[in-house]
Write a structure and sequence with these properties.
The protein is α/β, with parallel strands linked by helices. 26% of the residues lie in helices and 27% in strands. Helix 10 links the parallel strand 17 and strand 18. The two termini are 24 Å apart.
Amino acid sequence: MSRTARGAIARVPGEPVVFEDFTLDDPGENDVVVKILASGVCHTDLGLKTGTYGTDGFPFLLGHEGAGVVEEVGSRVTRVAVGDHVMLNWRAPCGECRFCVKGKHNVCANSHNAEGKMRDMDGGQLNAALGIGTFCSHTLVHEVQCVKYDPSLPAEPMSLIGCGVMTGVGAALYSAEVQTGDSVAVFGCGGVGDSVIQGAKIAGATTIIAVDIDNKKLEWAKDFGATHTVNSNEVDDVVAEIKRLTDGHGVNHSFEAVGIAETLEQALFCRDLAGNCVLIGVPGPGPRLDIDIQQFFDLGGSLTVSWYGNCIPARDFPTLAAWYKQGTLDLDRIVSRKISLEETNDAFDAMKRGETLRSVIVFD
């Protein structure tokens, strides 16, 4: 029997989200109904809402950083049971695609999604953001999209592991493989960038340079482990300043968490010889990079794109939850505001003004 839920839906690109009741199909054999407890408001949701990533797919049931409680399971579900507290993930490896059979589950080309669908009250299908949809009281996902966590842990920080935190920490640990004693520069100090900083600190980096245009965000970055800060609006040459802070050499690893060409170029050329540059920020269609290829060649090293921090959710989410419980990973300070579902549009506005790292929607 289908059930009714309530969520934040983006119907028209660029317009405010609307709050509507909708229905969930009965769960398929491997599907799970999750009652959402908390959902982070991620910049990717803003990009979906505004049509930055394209205008196909509307209407969207927004949200993809979620934690909740399993309320119903399909007939063949074995990974979770009713009553389990779960973090949701948008890359749920299938185990069978051309990448999974080679053991590269982090780049699965056929991630699991729910068999059942979510529909508005007129019967129209809603496109769940990144195959999840968490700006809602209940959602329908595949069991592989669920990772259990200790119910004694608060849902708000657990929800953030589902995307932004995992993306940043994983970029440091897995995409760049930061080592003890390394130097790091992070361009863009929002929720993802500050998670990169924490990941680099956990890995043992001794020089962590935070770069942003907002002094408030730079102060936050220091709280998360940045050893130096650079306001790119207040120096003549960002690359030269980073090299000055690293004895003229540049950093071993740079991370671009903004998604624009100017900061990517700075991230490329602030590296030491053979250093890594990791692109995390989602650029959307349009931006182009025009660089001196000889300069890039002479510097050596690598430019890589990090999707989801190269994580495997079933392996990595529990580790991050344990680090939070131990006090190694600070997630509480990433939660800037706790809001109701009906305050979602306000949260997007606050994000655009740079006032928050993460607003988190909390459901009673």
